[in-house]
Amino acid sequence: MSAPERDDSRGARISRFGPVAILTIVVIGLAVVLYYPIAMEKFMARYSGVSHVVEPAFEIQVFAQKYDWHFHYAGPDGVFGATSSSQVAKDNPIGLDAGDRNAQDDFVTSELVLPCDINILLKTHSADVIHTLGDVHGAFRVDAIPGVNTDGLLETPASPASGTLRCLTPCGPNHKHHHAPFRFVSETVYESWFETQLMAAQAKRPPPSPQPAR
Ligand SMILES: [Cu+2]
Predict the structure, then answer these.
(1) What is the SS3 assignment for 17?
(2) Phi-psi region at 195: left, alpha or beta (left = phi > 0; alpha = psi -120 to 50)
(3) Per the UniProt record, which residue ranges are transmembrane (predicted)?
(4) Are the beta carbons of 59 and 73 closer than 8 angstroms?
């Protein structure tokens, strides 16, 4: 008995491979549709700057000077008080203007403390030479340049962490001592720390001058 003859006509080929071809096209189409937004986001992050992709939750002003780092928090109002080099003093290293209404709830620290799992914009300034705030692994770095305000976006990890941020640009004979501790903490710990800093800053603030008698 001879084997049944294979039908290689065009119609037979279409009916044999047609469903496979359609399925392949559908799968590729779905992959393109699903991956396109991710690919575009990566492209924008790489070539157009992160500000188009990630919105920071809030800002911290970072002040560098040989060989200190100061972190300026805006307080509950979210508005930074004015600073002026003419007001820089030993107990006011960034020259925060105590007379500015927006400065009343601000505080300044030498340790960077932030909540976990959040994006923060670090606006960086230098009072003398170029410094670079960063971690030794190169996962984060932002330059502090005299006369220029530089933005750095810091994404904190999902879990608590602590360590030391260092100056990554040689900035003078004591460059190796130019570093600052950091802590990434839970929201609860951050709120408690924030409250403590606020109260400490209020306690240090001089009492308002008495109103002249009428
Ligand atoms: Cu430095």
Answers:
(1) helix
(2) alpha
(3) 20-38
(4) no
Residue 137 Cα, ligand 1 centroid: separation in angstroms?
A: 17
Tokens 């879990």 locate to: 159
- Report how far ligand 1's centroid is from the alpha carbon of 40 (Å): 36
Match 């500000």 to its residue by tokens. Answer: 51
Give me the DSSP letters along 157-201: -SS-EEEEEEE-S--STTGGG-EEEEEEE-HHHHHHHHHHHHHHH
Element (H, E) at 166: strand 161-167
Q: In what helix (H) or strand (E) does residue 48 lie, and over which residues does it extend?
A: none
pLDDT tens series, the chain, 214 aa: 455 566 667 777 767 777 777 777 777 776 666 655 556 555 555 554 444 567 899 999 999 999 999 999 999 999 999 999 889 998 899 999 988 999 999 999 999 999 999 999 999 999 999 999 998 887 899 999 999 999 999 999 999 999 999 999 999 999 999 999 999 999 999 999 999 999 999 888 766 556 555 5
Distance 59 CA to ligand 1 centre (A): 21
Distance 144 CA to ligand 1 centre (A): 9
144's tokens: 């502090």
Q: How far apart are CA 104 and CA 91, in angstroms?
A: 16
* 119-126 and 58-65 beta bridge pairing: parallel
How far, in Å, from the CA of 114 to the mean position of ligand 1?
22
C-alpha 13 chain-centroid distance:
58
